[in-house]
Every structure is written in C-alpha cells, then in structure tokens.
TrEMBL record:
Residues 44-65 have a biased composition (Polar residues). InterPro entries: Arc_rbn_hlx_hlx, Ribbon_hlx_hlx, SeqA, SeqA_DNA-bd_C, SeqA_DNA-bd_C_sf, SeqA_N. The lineage of its organism: Bacteria, Pseudomonadati, Pseudomonadota, Gammaproteobacteria, Pasteurellales. One of its GO terms (cellular component) is cytoplasm. This is Negative modulator of initiation of replication. One of its GO terms (biological process) is regulation of DNA-templated transcription. SUPFAM superfamilies: Replication modulator SeqA, C-terminal DNA-binding domain, Ribbon-helix-helix. Belongs to the SeqA family. Residues 98-204 form the Replication modulator SeqA C-terminal DNA-binding domain. It comes from Gallibacterium anatis (strain UMN179) (Pasteurella anatis). NCBIfam families: PRK11187.1 (NF008389). GO terms for molecular function: DNA binding.
Length: 218
C-alpha cells in the first residue's frame, strides 16, 4: 500500500473526476495524466479510500495551524463494489427535476450554511427515490466510518465526534462532522449511485463553491 498526503484543493479535484462508483485513485490519476491504464492481475479490484489525516499523524499545517492535507491511501478491497440496480427512466428523470427545482429555489439559494445545504440535498434525494437512496448509501460509506445509517448509534460507534444528524423527512441519519470536501464527496457518491447524470452532479458541486457560503472544516 502506498500513502501520500495531498491538500484539500487537490483532493477535491481528484474526487470530482471520478467517473464510476468505486473507481480507484490510480485509475483517476492515470486518466488525468494521460498514462496508459494497467490491467489488474489480481481478481480483487483496487479501490481508493480517502481518509483524513489523523490529528497526530503525518500531515502538514498552514501558518495558522490548520490541518491542510489529507491522507490518500490505495488499498486492496476484499469485495467488488456492486452498483445499485438502475431505476426506471421515469424515476431518474423525476430525480433530476427535483434536483434542479431544489438548487434554484429561494430557500436553497438563501441558505448560507453548507451543512444545511448538504442536508437539504440529501432529503430531496431520499424523497425523490427512497429505494434508490437507500441502495446508494450502502455504497457510499467510509472505509472505517459509517456515514449513513438508519440507526444513529451505528454512526456514533464508528468514530468520535461524528455529529450525526437526521436527514429531514427521512428515516436516515448522516455523519456531518466532515469538512466541505468530504461532504461534497459523499453527495457525489450518492448521486452517481442513483444514476444522476454527471452534469447535474457537477451543478450540485458548484453550489458548494460559492464565496458567500460558510466554509466548514473539521
């Protein structure tokens, strides 16, 4: 296993260039650098796991003392990642319309806290396609932390200070003690697993880069 430390901006750029759920970091970087892809000899797929550097680990800090880098680990997955079943065309189109309706609404545009926007989008995705959302959360978990669950205790048991919040108008809970880049990565993973087209995934991502939105770090 090889481990490198990268800053938040580079981490978000790599994550935003994922073209398939479970795509490994090596594949993404080879594509971005125009390197030839290498066929895997082992049967197990190689998946990328992006984990935040621990408070006492090998990470760099800015002049202000804030953690600025993440640990990017490439590990061998024991089980292949199975995408959820693709919903009907009608369900996908309904979900797409709901995304566009939400991000253009006055309530969403006037919300200046990223965690609230995060919860609003998750709530909308659940209401648009409950079954698809449930399946998507199963493939959008962390390597060692539980991000989504029907049981708040399961999220709390997977890490310290995870600050779980219930997704409005849904039975699901989500860990919110993550910085903006990680929240965005979680949203993108869920949307892609729900077969949201890439242009809408990127449109949602853009909603978290507006300068008037309150930045959140962990």
């Amino acid at each position: 296993m090889k481990t490198i430390s990268i800053d938040d901006e580079l981490y978000q750029y790599i994550a935003s260039n994922t073209q398939a759920i479970g795509e490994d970091a090596s594949t993404i970087l080879r594509r971005l650098l125009n390197f030839p892809q290498v066929q895997q000899i082992k049967k197990e797929p190689i998946t990328s796991n992006v984990t935040e550097a621990s408070n006492q680990g090998n990470h760099s800090r800015s002049d202000s003392g804030a953690v600025t880098e993440k640990e990017f680990s490439l590990t061998t997955s024991e089980q292949p990642l199975v995408l959820p079943k693709q919903p009907s065309k009608e369900v996908i189109e309904h979900t797409n319309r709901q995304i566009q309706k939400l991000i253009s609404s006055a309530e969403f545009l006037h919300e200046d806290k990223q965690v609230n926007r995060f919860l609003m989008i998750l709530s909308m995705l659940y209401r648009a396609n409950p079954e698809g959302f449930s399946s998507a959360t199963e493939v959008s978990q962390g390597r060692s932390r539980v991000y989504f669950s029907l049981e708040v205790a399961e999220i709390e048991a997977s890490g310290s200070s995870v600050n779980p919040k219930q997704i409005p108008k849904s039975p699901f809970w989500v860990a919110t003690n993550n910085n903006t880049a990680r929240k965005l990565n979680m949203l993108e993973s869920v949307m892609r697993a729900m077969y949201v087209p890439e242009h809408l995934v990127q449109l949602v991502a853009f909603q978290f880069t507006s300068p008037h939105i309150e930045e959140e770090t962990v």
